[in-house]
Amino acid sequence: MKLIVGIDFGTSTTVVRYKEEGTDVIKPIKDADGVSDIIPSAIFRVDGQNQTLYGCGALNAKTGGMQGELITNFKMGLLDVNPEERRIKEAYIEEFFTYIYKQFWNQTRGIRYDSMDVYVSVPAKWDTDAREVMKRTVKKAGFGENIICENEPTAAAYTMLHQHLNDFQKTKMLTVQKPMHVFMLDMGAGTTDIVIFRLKVDSEGRVATDNVLSYPTRDNRTLCGGREIDSILYNYILESLVKGTGKSKEELEQWGIYSVDKAKSWKDKYLSYRLKDNITIDTPNDFLPFLKMSGVSTQQALQMIRFNRQIFENETKEHWLELYKLIESAVAIYKEKYGKEVKGAEDIDLLFLTGGHSQWYCIPNLFNGEGINGYIGKDVNNGQGIVKALNFKKLREEPWRMFGDALPHECVATGLCLQDSNIKITTPTANNVWVRLTVNEQSSDYIQILRVGDLLPVQNKQSLEVTLSRNLVFGDCNFNITIELYTGENIETANRKILKLRQDENSVLGALIVAIMVLPIFFPVNYKFKINLCVDALEDGTLDVSGDCMMDNRENTRKEFSLKDMQEV
Fold first, then answer.
1. What does the alpha-carbon distance between residue 152 and residue 75 come to, in Å, rounded to a whole number?
2. pLDDT for res 514
3. How far apart are CA 192 and CA 215, in angstroms?
4. Mean pLDDT across the stretch 546-558?
5. Going by C-beta distance under 8 Å and a sequence separation of 6 or more, which residues neighbour residue 322?
6. Residues facing 3 on adjacent strands
7. Quick check: 141 and 96 in contact, CB under 8 A?
8. Which candidate, 437, 433, 434, 432, places its Cα nearest to that of 532?
9. Which of 108, 156, 383, 559 is the most buried (most CB within 10 A)?
């Protein structure tokens, strides 16, 4: 048995998932606390002690006031142009991955496996050198020899396709070898990466991406990460406290009542969710005791730091404007590079939003024409005429084409584990189908077994039980079984196909008649006759019929039949 392991090493968090080959059950590797399955990418050196903490332990030590050095953002060091700085960051990465492997080994040592494939995500823009560093680091940590670097957009595409497969197929968007142009916005804590690519699924269900553009390039220092929002929130709240209490920024910072880390925690736990539901947020509870001690009334304290969508979008407008410039530049470059296939934003088929920062309620507004703060990503009149925003025509007309992951931090790691799970493309049926069963003159209702858009293959089972009375000497012992199939828009105009079970001496019914002849034959006898029908709508739309029938629920009279036992009339 082989293990498939996916490692998404991020700027602020690392996610590790694994599964057994051939299954779809993906399991998490948790941090040393046994609770968190998203591990902070952090190292903490304790002052005066030969002790180093990692993950949740590192962050808890820092927030708990322990003296020492918190080391974060070392992933970004792989892009550093200074060789010495890059070497230091590589050492941090190797140390952190050694810790990750320890957690992996502790949590999987009871599993018997013969081999292991380890997939590690890397930004699509990373060059060969950076990828080799990752492979070498993961290998040295203990994960074995078979280390594969996979582009983040490809991994994310696997997750999105698996999660939303039915949606793609019901709309007939996903068919074999049909190209789709995807805009992926991956917004992490440190940076925002845009990847535009063409995606296809082959007849074997393998996902392929080509015509890949990753933007901004490695030498572009534009970040647009989640930490920028944290800093904006921190400054807004600090200024509100200064204005409301009369204290200086220096006093407030010295008292330690607020920090960028606390701003991030408040954002993650409350702000982003409340704004998504369009709820106004008052002063965080953490500040109320301090504000009351400063002589501020409860009512004033509650209203001192107020957030709603309008305030949020106004305070963060420069951030979103910078992001939209990245989006415009990426589309322009992609059009220039692949203009024969893509005219521009109007040809983008899908939007994938990955990374925790991409889940802000306002992100889709940059693509659907509604805009942020009244003008970013929206057609506006500047007094001299209409300034047009990018026209993501398909996304505007059909918002369901914009997909955010329910668990954005896990999207890439999950996709890495799905590398051996091919996409099974099914076909939506183009017709409604009804069935009716008749035994002699007793019929079932018309039962709809397929609706337009149902994904093939589909199996539907129906039963009919009737009571028949026959004198086996003087009465007719024949059983006339008819199966009617109706295919079309509605049952009144549908095409009808009638199937009858044959009654020759070698048929199913012939065998049934012989089976009941052992009963008394001179008196009318009531028989319970039951037929179970199974209709299979195959992948090509063909209908296959099979089933069984029996007398008086007696197993020794059960006879199976299939389409070859029937004749069309």
1. 15
2. 46
3. 9
4. 85
5. 222, 224
6. 20, 116
7. no
8. 437
9. 156
CA–CA distance, 16 with 31 (Å, rounded to integer): 10
Q: State residue 256's pLDDT score.
A: 63
Neighbouring-strand partners of residue 119: 6, 148
pLDDT of 511 reads: 52
Mean pLDDT of the residues in the chain: 85
> Taking Cα atoms as reference points, which of 251, 321, 309, 239 lies closest to residue 280?
309
CATH 3.40.50.720 at 1-145, yes or no: no
Closest CA to 324 of 380, 381, 278: 380
Check residue 517 and give its pLDDT.
43
Nearest to 458 by CA among 373, 402, 382, 542: 542
354: three-class secondary structure by DSSP? strand
> Do 1-145 and 427-568 come out as alike in CATH topology?
no
Q: Which of 94-98, 126-130, 226-230, 253-257 has the highest average model confidence (pLDDT)?
A: 94-98
Closest CA to 183 of 144, 219, 211, 150: 211
Q: What is the largest CA-CA distance in the chain?
A: 109
The pair of three-digit structure tokens given for residue 254, joined into one six-digit string? 């010295």
Which tens digit of pLDDT belongs to each residue from 111-125? 988 999 999 998 877
How much is the average pLDDT of 354-372?
A: 91
Rounded Cα–Cα distance for residues 20 and 30 (Å): 17
Q: In degrees, to the nearest 5, what angle opens at C-alpha 511 toward C-alphas 508 and 513?
A: 110
pLDDT per residue over 230-282, tens digit each? Answer: 999 988 888 888 888 887 877 776 666 667 877 888 888 888 889 999 999 88
pLDDT at 454: 80
Worst-scoring range by mean pLDDT, 18-22, 282-286, 314-318? 282-286
Confidence at residue 505, expressed as pLDDT on a 0 to 100 scale: 44
Q: Which of 520, 218, 193 is nearest to 353 (CA)?
A: 193
402-424 burial by CB neighbour count: b if 16+ within 10 A, else e? bbbbeebbbbbbbbbbbbebebe
What's the CA gap between 235 and 510, in Å, rounded? 88
CA distance 540 to 190: 48
3-state secondary structure 495-537: EEEEEEECCCCCCHHHHHHHHHCCCCCCCCEEEEEEEEEEEEE
CA distance 41 to 58: 9
Domain range annotation of the chain? 1-145, 165-405, 427-568
Q: What is the CATH number of domain 427-568?
A: 2.60.34
- Does CATH number 3.30.420.40 belong to domain 165-405? yes
Confidence at residue 431, expressed as pLDDT on a 0 to 100 scale: 86
What is the DSSP code (8-state) at residue 419? T
Mean pLDDT of the 202-219 span = 80
* Beta strands 432-439; 481-488: pairing state: antiparallel
Which stretches does DSSP call E strand in 390-494?
Answer: 402-404, 427-428, 432-439, 442-443, 447-450, 455-456, 458-470, 481-488
Which among 103, 76, 100 is positioned nearest to 90, based on CA atoms? 76
Q: Which amino acid is at 211?
A: N
HSE-CB for 569 with a 13 A CA cutoff: 11
Instruction: Give the count of beta carbons closer than 10 Å to the beta carbon of residue 450.
Output: 21
